[in-house]
Amino acid sequence: MNTLLIALTLFAQMQTPPADAQRTASGLVTVKLADGTDTDHPGPDDIVKIRYSITNAEGKVIDSVSGDHAAVMQVSRMMPGWREAVSMMTAGESRRAWVPSSLGGGKIAEGATYMIDTELLDTIHGPETPDDVAAPSADAEITRSGLASRVLKEGNGKRHPTRRSIVKVFYSGWTTEGRLFDSTALHGGQPSEFPLSGVIAGWTEGIPLMVEGEVRRFWIPAKLAYEKDPTKPQGMLVFDIELISIH
């Protein structure tokens, strides 16, 4: 099939979803292309491993991940229509969705519709958003710098890391609006290892309060986080950190 014919076929598919397509109250239109092999549906806090292709209103593929590659995304950070379509899927399933501009999260021109084909490879259950991300809890310890924390699980170690230590941790980070912006769950679920001299000031100060095996929640004010880096989340940030080991 030549390139022009492929483009015309895609354009025709975009204009006329099949009669048996599923239509939701939001205006999303989807059709299942292949059945899944599981019964579990992704939730907003989950991370999905997917292959996909996004076709714009002119029939041009503007983004895709295919073949031996896969993308890892948090469901809540996908455009609303894509998020809704993925939440209908199970692992192993492929689904086509026609996403109108009203569900495009500002990424689709007014009145246009994008067609998104998605293959859901796996769902990774992300950490639940804590109830107290908006502000430190009443029982939090607060240091002179404004760093607040409370212990979620007591550790079994005796040593505290120093600011020159290399530590191995599990972590998840949220904004005060409850958006998960980073987590070891997003990076294959393996612990992260780094020198405390090379991280944000809130971690450099806070992790030495911990012992091995401890889990602690930190409320890190902007001045101890990414205040000087506009590419990172701004304002106070909340981290749950589990200290695995100290080197």
Walk me through this protein's architecture.
The protein has 247 residues and is mostly beta strands. The protein folds into 2 domains: 3-124, Chitinase A, domain 3 (Roll); 141-246, Roll (Chitinase A, domain 3). It has 3 helices and 14 strands. The protein has helices at 3-15, 80-87, 201-206, and strands at 22-23, 29-34, 47-55, 61-65, 71-74, 94-100, 113-124, 141-142, 148-153, 166-175, 180-183, 192-195, 215-220, 237-246. The strands form 2 sheets. Strands 1, 2, 3, 4, 5, 6 and 7 form a 7-stranded antiparallel β-sheet that branches. Strands 8, 9, 10, 11, 12, 13 and 14 form a 7-stranded antiparallel β-sheet that branches. The protein is elongated, with a radius of gyration of 22 Å. The N and C termini lie far apart (58 Å). The model has no long low-confidence stretch (mean pLDDT 92).
Number of helices: 3
**Weakly predicted, low-confidence segments:** none
CATH architecture of the largest domain: Roll
Query: Sheet with the most strands?
Result: 7 strands, antiparallel
**At the first level of CATH, what is the class of the largest domain?**
Alpha Beta
| Total domain modules | 2
N-C termini distance = 58 Å
Which value, in Å, is the CA radius of gyration?
Answer: 22 Å
Helical coverage, percent range? 10-25%
CATH domain fold name of the largest domain: Chitinase A, domain 3
Mean pLDDT: 92
Spell the H/E element sequence: HEEEEEHEEEEEEEHEE
Strand tally? 14
* Overall geometric form: elongated
Category from helices, strands and their pairing: mainly beta
Quote the beta fraction.
35-45%
